[in-house]
Amino acid sequence: MGFQFNHVGGGTKTRRPITLHMKYNPDCDSPLCHLLSDSDPSIDQQLSLQEIQAYIEAENMRLEKEPCQFSSKEIIIRVEYKYCPNLSIIDTPGLVAPAPGRKNRALQAQARAVESLVRAKMQHKEFIILCLEDCNDWSNATTRRVVMQIDPELSRTVVVATKLDTKIPQFARSSDVEVFLSPPASTLDGFMLGDSPFFTSVPSGRVGLGHESVYRSNDEFKQAISLREMEDVAALEEKLGRSLTKQERSRIGVSSLRLFLEELLQKRYMDSVPLIIPLLEKEHRSSTRKLTDINQELSTLDEVKLKEKGRAFHDLFLTKLSLLLKGTVIAPPDKFGETLQDERVNGGAFVGSDGLQFPHKLIPNAGMRLYGGAQYHRAMAEFRFVVGGTKCPPITREEIVNACGVEDIHDGTNYSRTACVIAVAKARDTFEPFLHQLGNRLLHILKRLLPISVHLLQKDGEYLSGHEVFLRRVASAFNNFAESTERSCREKCMEDLVSTTRYVTWSLHNKNRAGLRQFLDSFGGSEQSATGGNSVAASLSQELSSLSMASDKQDSKPRPDVKLGHLASGNDSSGTVQATETRLADLLDSTLWNRRLAPSSERIVYALVQQIFHGIREYFLASVELKFNCFLLMPVVDKLPALLREDLESAFQDDLDNVFDITNLRHSLGQQKREVEIELRRIKRLKEKFRQIHEQLISHEVMC
């Protein structure tokens, strides 16, 4: 760079990365330096080179005393100079190779911190890496070991062997020097920049006016560097016993390294300028189009045109909503879709009274990222799976006895009433939480339609940019509609659940009488074999079967009264009639006049409760699905358009200025216009500048 700036000396000195933003300025005969503030990079302070050096040394000494002796926060310096190209240089701390062992743990931690910092800086693909190796044997790859983890082929790395003046006396034979200057491919492989290493020596004296300074100016220092290069060349030729070739000479000294980097930089410019100009053209077109849009927006800030834009946006928004419900693939699923697991986290899961969730993998399309109508359908399918598989909670003997109670006209027991009381209580407690969970889940899915619709509008260029107040009003109206519609639908479903669990209608609740009859028959048969045929359950099963068959065969004719003594067939003998009357008496004695809960009575109550519970479940499932489809999904299609339009028209009549925030919008558009005009002028200057640079580089290449 032509001047000293860094802190040098024995041991590790650089403890923070130093970034130099070099800028060519033909008017600066000496470096003009600005130090950027650590807290606010937009603030800088002009300092001399000596002050910059003092600041860097102070920072290094401060960090050396702290527990963590290195910092990744950069020291950023802007330098303008007539002898430098436009270039950014980052000086990182040197790598440390500590000895193993517990007593060196602090130094080992520092080494890891430095390596992590250096690796982070080398990640940028556009950076050229200057790899400094302090060795006289290329088998030792202290720095290259780290560099090649980021740049394995060394394709953007320049390898430099430093302190050449100290290495030359170490070589005893000319062959050692030959191997050092031209290492074999097996030792230093890869496709490094420049094809082979560079070799440099830098005098250790400092530039300054102090008593410790060796050189009074940077020019003195540069002369010492040139003299050092000549001495290195002479020492190498003496060791080799021959003159250096032109190729070998082009790798010795800081001046050769600088020349190579300048040529490399020029080549980068030559490769980049033809690509930059089209990019600037693209930016110019984009800014011109943006300015045209702003001017058009400013010209439409009147009452009539704003209303037209609002109504047009209303129609387009509803179109996108309808499209999402019907199905589309325009919105990317990876951005807007939700898997069933995501949906459960964000919208709530279906959790039964036992606190368990249905395994999401058993639901169709559970792993797919869905939105819109497809997500709504999957949520409803999960609801059917979960509720349809819900079993009646366990029934205890205490619940049966407590449900028996006392009638208002006698103290006998009524097990059919007992079964009804238990069944409706269990059903209400079981199914009501599912109703609220379904409402929350479907409301979540509906509300997600809003941001997805906005994305589709933006993608098609139909979004009202800048009208944030109006857009918030539309979003608020949509969300309020979704919430009120879901609440109303849930209340309708709740009415059905209350009515179904308040009064038992056997034709509705007892859906599977054949199953109940089969259960009682099998139960009665086993009891009869155990008790010699005088079974209460068998009697009840037979009587229920008789009554059920009679009910199934009834027609439009009036049914005559049936006396107890004529329940049996007319062809039966008097013994059969007497047996039937005995069984009925036993039945009454066991159920109506006796409060001891026999196992047979318990099982009968259990069977009745199961039948009633399952009847309520089937009705609840069908009713809820139908009502949510009719009173939540369909209103989005047939009621939302009118409600949104009504809300907009009401807002247009009340206060149009507040709806569109015309005053602030006009001010904001004016500010945007000024910024785009400034950006256009800047792009034009850059285009002209790079065109001139390109012409100069081309002419220079032709002359060479």
UniProtKB/TrEMBL annotation:
<dbReference type="InterPro" id="IPR022812">
    <property type="entry name" value="Dynamin"/>
</dbReference>
<feature type="coiled-coil region">
    <location>
        <begin position="669"/>
        <end position="696"/>
    </location>
</feature>
<dbReference type="GO" id="GO:0005777">
    <property type="term" value="C:peroxisome"/>
</dbReference>
<dbReference type="GO" id="GO:0016559">
    <property type="term" value="P:peroxisome fission"/>
</dbReference>
<dbReference type="InterPro" id="IPR030381">
    <property type="entry name" value="G_DYNAMIN_dom"/>
</dbReference>
<dbReference type="GO" id="GO:0003924">
    <property type="term" value="F:GTPase activity"/>
</dbReference>
<keyword id="KW-0175">Coiled coil</keyword>
<dbReference type="InterPro" id="IPR027417">
    <property type="entry name" value="P-loop_NTPase"/>
</dbReference>
<feature type="domain" description="Dynamin-type G">
    <location>
        <begin position="1"/>
        <end position="274"/>
    </location>
</feature>
<protein>
    <recommendedName>
        <fullName>Dynamin-type G domain-containing protein</fullName>
    </recommendedName>
</protein>
<dbReference type="InterPro" id="IPR045063">
    <property type="entry name" value="Dynamin_N"/>
</dbReference>
<dbReference type="GO" id="GO:0016020">
    <property type="term" value="C:membrane"/>
</dbReference>
<feature type="compositionally biased region" description="Basic and acidic residues">
    <location>
        <begin position="552"/>
        <end position="564"/>
    </location>
</feature>
<dbReference type="GO" id="GO:0008017">
    <property type="term" value="F:microtubule binding"/>
</dbReference>
<dbReference type="InterPro" id="IPR001401">
    <property type="entry name" value="Dynamin_GTPase"/>
</dbReference>
<feature type="region of interest" description="Disordered">
    <location>
        <begin position="549"/>
        <end position="577"/>
    </location>
</feature>
<dbReference type="GO" id="GO:0005525">
    <property type="term" value="F:GTP binding"/>
</dbReference>
<dbReference type="Pfam" id="PF00350">
    <property type="entry name" value="Dynamin_N"/>
</dbReference>
<dbReference type="GO" id="GO:0005874">
    <property type="term" value="C:microtubule"/>
</dbReference>
